Amino acid sequence: MRLQDKIQRITTVVFDVDGVLSDGKITYDIHGVEYKSFHVRDGHRIKLLHRVGYHTGIITGRHSPVVAHRAKELEIKMLYQGAIDKLAVYEQMKNEYQLVDEQIAYIGDDIIDIPVLRRAGLAACVPDAIEDVRREVDIITQCRGGEGAAGEFIERILQEAGHWPIIMERYWR
Ligand SMILES: [Mg+2]
Question: Which family does it belong to (predicted)?
Answer without folding.
Answer: Belongs to the KdsC family.
